[in-house]
Design a protein that fits this description.
0% strand; 115 residues; 78% helix; mainly alpha
Length: 115
């Protein structure tokens, strides 16, 4: 959950989730997906949905288990995360990626590498 690999996976999933959000907005403004593009759009759409699911579950787990923010910040982000796929992605980029857990982990990791 707080390893560099997990951080990378969640950030990629959050990017896919954001892409899904913007795709949904574009489709809404265009009035739908043209029938001849449906087979082409299925794979990226599935990737976006999978990214949104991974981001939502991972960020909720981090929020309830590891986030040590103040109560007001937690209340704000709890409300924001109720708006998938945008909310969990924003939480991932703004809170999860910059959390103290990673800062302390990077400090320990750098301390091990240096002679």
């Amino acid at each position: 959950m707080v390893s560099q690999t997990a951080r990378r996976v969640y950030r990629v999933a959050a990017a896919l989730s954001l892409a899904l959000f913007f795709f949904m907005v574009a489709v809404r403004f265009e009035g739908g997906i043209p029938p001849n593009l449906v087979p082409i759009v299925k794979v990226p759409l599935f990737a976006g949905v999978l990214g949104a699911a991974i981001t939502t579950v991972g960020m909720e787990y981090f929020f309830f288990g590891f986030d040590n923010s103040s109560a007001m910040k937690k209340l704000f982000w709890f409300c924001v995360m109720l708006l998938p796929p945008l909310g969990p992605s924003l939480y991932c980029f703004i809170v999860y990626s910059r959390s103290d857990v990673f800062k302390s982990m990077m400090g320990e990791h750098l301390g091990e590498v240096q002679p």
